[in-house]
Write a structure and sequence with these properties.
Blueprint (H helix, E strand, L loop, with lengths): L5 E7 L3 H12 L4 E5 L22 H12 L5 E5 L2 E7 L2 E6 L4 E9 L3 E3 L7 H4 L4 E2 L2 H4 L8 E4 L4 H9 L6 E4 L8 H9 L4 E2 L3 E7 L2 E7 L4 E3 L2 E4 L3 E3 L3 H5 L22 E3 L10 H26 L2
Parallel strand pairs: 1-2, 1-6, 2-3, 6-17, 8-15, 9-10, 9-15, 10-11
Antiparallel strand pairs: 4-5, 5-6, 7-16, 12-13, 13-14
Helix pairs in contact: 1-2, 1-8
Length: 306
């Protein structure tokens, strides 16, 4: 691309948030470039759930249909690449990709999501996306009424147990090391017949991606047909922080109701800016952020017409 050309917006990330934003911007006749590595975090799963009209669609098919629909708007382009450096400011950002290409843009939208950190539990990767999940809203229905192991520790454990109990009453908590519960939390779990195992996990045993047991270091075997676990995540891109964007106390980009960060001209949407990690939430945030970008561009265009 000619560096003399200045795009209206660059979107970093081509998941539900990025593509939803691209659709809104394309329909607003804005010149947009979507930079996508095409390695979505949900590629390990077989289906996307909780998305009205798309419930059960595979992540790959979701992206294919989205790209097909966005293709109706010729001002939107996609490239498979990685943004590695950004300079400039509102109205003239300059971005360089891993392949060495350079682009200019008036606005930026980070829809770069999150990435999983190493799980460090033997056998967990073998079942991740098949019978081990992180979000009961996304996958609880498929594991309803099955015996489940919750791999979670700390104050979040009790909340997680309450939440998952809506899908199955047959649950056990594995803290993968000394439990960090207070006596009142242990009493609540015990009163409801929910066992709490504090021994470290030796191995997740499974067959063809379906978990059968959680084997602990003390020799205890916790039988189960599914797992929910508290994953450890990192931002999908370090560039927002490098630009000066602030993260909130939940470790995601702090954005306002229109998706604006504290840096003028920089927006955030989807998992990069929310801990909810649901496709439908990400898509809605992308749409809202795109509307915010269109509004800013329209105001600037109006001013420059004089």
């Amino acid at each position: 691309m000619n560096m003399a050309e200045r795009l209206d917006s660059i979107i970093i990330g081509g998941g539900p948030a990025g593509m939803s934003a691209a659709l809104v911007l394309g329909r607003a006749r804005r010149n947009v470039l979507v930079i996508d590595e095409e390695r979505p975090r949900n590629r390990v799963t077989h289906a996307t759930h909780g998305f009205l009209t798309r419930d059960g669609i595979s992540p790959g098919e979701f992206r294919r249909v989205a790209r097909e629909q966005i293709a109706a708007y010729p001002s939107v382009r996609f490239i498979r690449d990685q943004a590695v450096e950004i300079a400039g400011s509102d109205g003239d950002f300059r971005l360089t990709t891993l392949s060495g290409e350079s682009y200019r843009s008036k606005k930026l939208l980070f829809a770069s999501g999150k990435k999983d950190l190493p799980m460090n539990i033997p056998g967990l990767e073998d079942v991740y996306g098949r019978s081990a999940f992180v979000c009961p809203f996304c996958d609880g229905w498929e594991l309803r009424d099955k015996p489940l192991a919750l791999i979670v520790n700390g104050p979040h454990a009790l909340h997680f147990a309450k939440l998952v109990s809506g899908w199955s009453r047959h649950i056990a908590i594995c803290t993968n090391g000394p439990d960090e519960q207070v006596d009142e939390q242990r009493e609540q779990l015990a009163a409801r017949g929910i066992p709490l195992y504090a021994s470290p996990i030796r191995q997740i045993e499974s067959s063809d991606g379906i978990v059968t047991n959680v084997l602990l270091e003390d020799g205890t075997s916790v039988p189960c047909s599914g797992i929910f676990f508290a994953s450890k995540l990192a931002p999908g891109s370090d560039l927002p922080v490098a630009l000066g964007c602030i993260n909130n106390d939940q470790g995601v980009l702090a954005v306002d109701a229109r998706g604006k960060t504290n840096i003028p001209g920089v927006f955030g949407a989807g998992d990069a800016a929310t801990p909810m990690n649901q496709a439908i939430v990400a898509a809605s945030m992308g749409s809202v952020a795109a509307a915010g970008i269109v509004s800013e561009l329209a105001e600037e265009d109006w001013t420059n017409r004089i």
